[in-house]
Amino acid sequence: MTTMTTIAIAATFTAEPVEPTVRFWMQELQMPATIKFAPYSQVFQQLLDPSSTLSANRDGVNVLIVRLEDLIEKEVDRLDWTDRHAAGFLSAVTGALERSPIPYLVCFCPSAEMESGNALVHHRLEGRVTDALREMPGVDIVSSRELIAAYPIAEIFDPHGDRLAHVPYTPAFFTALGTMIARRIYGLSERPYKVIAIDADQTLWDGVCGEVGPLGVGMDASRRAIHEFLLQQHAAGMILCLCSRNNEEDVAAVFDSRTEMVLRPAHIAASRINWKPKSENIRSLAQELRLSLESFIFLDDDAVACADVEANCPEVLTFLLPRNPESIAPFLRNIWAFDHRKVTKEAAERTAFYRQNSERREFQMESLTLEDFLAGLGLKVQILPMASADLARAAELTQRTNQFNVTTIRRSEAGLQALLRSTGLTSSTGLVVRVKDRFGDYGLVGAMVFTVGSAALRVDTFLLSCRALGRGVEHRMLARLGEIALQNGLASVDVPFLASGKNQPALDFLMSVGSDGKRAAEDGLLFQFPAHVAAAVHYDPPAAAAAPPSVGGLPVPAASGATTDARAKAALLSSIAMELSDVDQVAAAIASQRLSRPDLNVPYVAPTTASEKQLAAMFEEVLGVERVGIHDSFFGLGGHSLLAMMLINRARHVFHVEFPITLLFEDEFTVSKAAQMVARYQKMQASPEGTTEALEQLLETSSDDEVRTLLAELSGPVPPKGGHRKG
Question: Which are the contacts of 205, defined by CB distance < 8 A and separation ≥ 6?
């Protein structure tokens, strides 16, 4: 059963206009969600109060929407923004994170000062805060620049809305903001991918290299954009592979001859260039890289090749690229599966590791036995307390590691931090494993989390990246837990095992250490190793056996019976990239989902005049209701004070008139009444005669407040009754 996610939002301004967009996306993504707004402009209170809306959220994500100028005292010059303001906000966030088991998403919104020549000041201030936030575990950041670049719009700011109801942005901006929030929430919920397998002909270049030769293929600006996108993915830790039906020498000739290509062979970790089906080649690449098919994204311009991979490798996320080369790079930028949050050092160096593995493979072939191979590696293993700086990588391992993971429980940074904090113990309850050998540094490849009980050391997390399997590292990890158990006078090390369909190597290891202590447990098995047995565990490779059939010294894993069908996800993400990639498309999609007109006990009367039609459309847009009649009450249709303010703002932009606020709180505010107000304004603005006539009508039919509002529009402030205005 799909669980309900709570999205708790606190903002420094009135941010409720973002709700329809976030709700739309949650429905599109099939992520049931409850959206809760904290009280108006109470970001600091929400962060500091243990009983606040944010603090009470235990099963979703907390969203902070921040306009920096709202955090600064009015009398403080933006140029002299003090450390006190930054430190106060960051301290409040830190305190909230210590209480929260869920991630925080902090979205920075642009300042109106960007249009007054102070853009550099704004970005400098924002940069100081975002740099500090990025160091905090459990925090995801959206900068104002990032938001505007992803979803550009013509008009961002709404000064009138800001003055009227502290709604400083246009509806289009709120649509962009809501889309980015949903995009990041989706990313937080998804397991990240590791590999991009990409075609060559008609993708990396225009033309077929085997027919036109290396100098005949096209390399225009659109192809360069594709290369640059792939390089960005490479820098974020994605492994790039070529998968092309071609002659290997023809593809190599293109890379050799076309030096203007920014994507170079050094960026490619592995290739399959032959005439075999691409599904077969992707399976071969998965074997070489020691990664599951669920880690792969496949890109090709050929519908037949994509169909082959979808049918025979349904676990692979497969995308058919647009036929127009100029559309490919924008399409890829709007595939949400390519989004990356924090890029760890290990992820950024992933390609280098797989290149080093080729050297390990050559050395393995020269070794007579597995014992010789491991001895020659010069393996160095460090098991250290888990520090705050390790949380991002440790959380990434819980998300990515499948084969050697005793529970395959996925955790975010915030979740992992909360787990360590909930035990009430020191950072020694979290351990990380770093490995290097003569060929290079594996980085942080393992993690353990445990609790010291009264009689046993109880393991929660015990995992090791597949890049370090088969070298005895896992034995040293268990031995370290045994040593800690003995130091604390504990009898056993208790390790749970929950089968995932992919973690057979973890079960094989536990069984090899000793199956005597195995017993059934809730949802799986529990292995209870006597502390002295665990502490004495070491790896004895079979000295007489030749190195096993493997890649880089690792045994080939058994095929998993459980697979994930990624075809529906690929279809959804393709649809988003093609049909919902800009603000106008999203706004139109939201409008198409308006609710039916409720039963108001008032007959539906369609608008007839131009102003009635425009006003009815505004009612429908603001209220999210279709077929608004001219006699339908705004509040009867579900309107409230904030929506009323939004309607005032839209009318002002379209008709250049100002509806009196008091009018909007009358039960019978309708399209018809609004149209009459518009007609009066237009008469007043047209001629002196029109003004006289309109005022006469107004005096007969309107309240004093309405008269005063209209006069103010025409001639400036109006004094109270009995007062006098000069001039």
Answer: 217, 218, 219, 223, 254, 258, 261
- For residue 673, the Cα-to-chain-centroid distance in whole angstroms is 45
> d(Cα 437, Cα 594) in Å, to the nearest integer?
61
- Give me the helices (H) in 410-535, please: 413-422, 473-487, 504-513, 531-535
Q: Give the Cα separation of 151 and 167 in Å (integer).
A: 19
**How far, in Å, CA of 47 to CA of 174, rounded?**
23
Minimal CA–CA distance to 268: which of 204, 345, 338?
204
How far apart, in whole angstroms, are the C-alpha atoms of residue 147 and residue 169?
A: 14
Q: Note the pLDDT tens digit of each residue in 645-695.
A: 777 777 777 877 777 766 656 667 888 888 888 887 777 766 655 555 554
Please give the single-letter amino acid code of residue 441: D
Tokens at residue 622, please? Answer: 């603001």
- Of 498, 483, 560, 574, residue with least CA distance to 529: 483
**Among candidates 40, 41, 39, 34, which has minimal Cα distance to 57?**
34
Partnered with residue 532 across adjacent β-strands are none
Full-model pTM: 0.71
Taking a C-beta distance cutoff of 8 angstroms, is the pair 121, 144 a contact? no
Percent of the chain whose pLDDT exceeds 70: 80
